[in-house]
Amino acid sequence: MNHLPFENWLLNDMPITSEQQRELDVHLRNCSYCSALAETGRLLNTTKMAAPAAGFTMRFQSRLATRKIEEHRRKLLGALLFILGGSALVMWLTAPYVLSFLAAPSTWISVVVSWFIYLETTLVALVNAGLVIFTIIPKFMPPFAWMVLISAFAGISLLWSVSIWRFAQRGMPQGV
After folding, report:
1. Whole-prediction pTM value?
2. What is the domain extent for residue 109?
3. How far is CA 66 from the centre of its chain?
4. Residues 120 and 98 in one domain
5. Comparing C-alpha atoms, which of 44, 21, 45, 24 is closest to residue 35?
6. pLDDT digits (tens, 9 = 90+) for 48-99
7. CA dist 2 to 7, 30, 112, 135, Å?
8. What one-character-per-residue DSSP string does 37-60 give?
9. What is the DSSP string of 62-75?
10. Domain count for the chain
11. What DSSP character marks residue 14?
12. Are residues 110 and 167 in the same domain?
């Protein structure tokens, strides 16, 4: 049985039309779940709210202020411990390199030069491999495959542009 509209009518405090009220009355006669829900709602609406004890707001506000101060202290202590621990870890990891850097300049100069040579040879190898791939691939793909690939890229680009435009429109205020 579909209880959704009847549950919404019973749980929301919004007025319903006379036709909806008739449907609800018929449904309540046949459905024990919804009639129990309606009875619970009636009982909750007729129950008198208990007043808080005297001085409740003052006690609550003072506890809230105390807890905020404690939470601020805990966060500050946690951040301090995090920074100190991270700094100690970084110093522990970099200490051998710093010591060797200060001890023998010829060693670190040779390491830096060899690293730049490695970086340059790697980039040259990647560029040469890319050139080989881009000269060979067009010979293996028929023109139809290129047309499908370019069309797919254009469609994805159009979809991306439209989605960016729609997101930008959502954030902008509507006119007066």
Report:
1. 0.35
2. 105-171
3. 31
4. no
5. 24
6. 878 888 888 899 999 999 999 999 999 999 999 999 999 999 999 999 888 8
7. 9, 12, 73, 65
8. HHHHHHHHHHSPPPPPPTTHHHHH
9. HHHHHHHHHHHHHH
10. 3
11. S
12. yes
